[in-house]
Amino acid sequence: MKPNFQTASRVRDVRYEIRGALARRARELEQQGNDILQLNIGNPGAFGLRTPETMRRAVVRNLKYSEAYGPQTGIFPAREAVAMQFQGRGMTETTYDQVIVGNGVSELVDLVLRSLLEPGDEVLVPAPDYPLWTAAVVLNGGKAVHYRCQAEQDFIPDVEQIRARITDRTRALVVINPNNPTGAVYPESVLQALADLAAEHDLILFSDEIYDAICFDDARFVPMAPLAENTLCVSFGGLSKVYRACGWRVGWAVFTGQLERAQDYRLAVEKLSALRLSANVPGQWAVQTALGGYQSIADLVARGGRLYESRQAVIDAVERSRFLELVTPMGAMYAFPSVRADHFPDFDDHRFAAELLEQKHILIVPGSSFNIPERNHFRITLLPEAEDLERAFEKINDLLEELADE
Ligand code: PLP
């Protein structure tokens, strides 16, 4: 037989296990007639959380203007709406031409890194991270240098540790706030220190803020851009999470700070965006409605709201369990529990996730998929109803009981 067709080694080196082998196995089990509780993806629509009706109407009304390609950087009303959001955040000079709209933040992450990196250039990425960032750095020839956010410090970055990882090849610093997978929401003092560090070393700050309006209790989201005027800051947001429109594939990146030094770079990003002609147009018509109108996510996040109650169910379930620990998630839509070392000194998160899927029909993501070496964590999304999460945790505990007896 002839050898296999070639696969690019740079793709082989990319890890994205949120939709990896376990998810494929879950599909097989489903095809065999099993119900699988999929806690692996933060996909609101899959859990009955609808896109606000005003946004749906905005898309439908504008469908007739959505048949042609749009401008490569996005339609004007969408860009203008994002610029106005930034004006409202104290960046009063922001104009629409600082905004680029893409097919979700995912596409823009790739565009901004592809436009930046030479082979071997380094990017500081949090660990645990949302693994798209590490994957996109690797795919674009760079090296992801991970800075650790530790459970003992509530997963808040340690600025001095980041400083120690900077080399003459470091080009950028990635910050994810509110954080996926940990649920940490960073205080302003830490964000300011990160912005100052980036400015001091001339690093581009990539601030992934896709969960900006999802903060619980007294946690408060602080945008990075106003703190980072002394470097180039690229802030990311989108319709997927806060506006529950993952399938529309609409995200944006906003360039602020030292723009006069970033003209070539921005032209490069724009050139790459031209290669894919335009982002999905229909969804862009909802951006103005989304950002300008009533923020219904607030109802879901407030005490008594769907996300709040689901989060509470997870907190309570972990508290009842003698096997589990959790840094309370203060934002985003995930929990990142760990198993206690006194019960499981050699826990294997991948094996646990595989057994949970086979035996209990629950799909989770092993913690080491988020680019940390420890194997004692797992991530679940907080999107299901509280009762479904309670039942899921009963099964998780049952399996842990069985494993503890082994
Ligand atoms: N950034 C973070 C931190 C995410 O968690 C996600 C999706 O889960 C994305 C970006 C991608 O979002 P989008 O749907 O806009 O591509």
UniProtKB/TrEMBL annotation:
InterPro entries: Ala_Aminotransferase (IPR051926), Aminotransferase_I/II_large (IPR004839), PyrdxlP-dep_Trfase (IPR015424), PyrdxlP-dep_Trfase_major (IPR015421), PyrdxlP-dep_Trfase_small (IPR015422). Its cofactor is pyridoxal 5'-phosphate. GO terms for molecular function: L-alanine:2-oxoglutarate aminotransferase activity; pyridoxal phosphate binding. It comes from the Bacteria. It is an enzyme of class 2 (transferase). Its EC number is 2.6.1.2. Pfam families: Aminotran_1_2. Belongs to the class-I pyridoxal-phosphate-dependent aminotransferase family. This is alanine transaminase. It comes from Wenzhouxiangella marina.
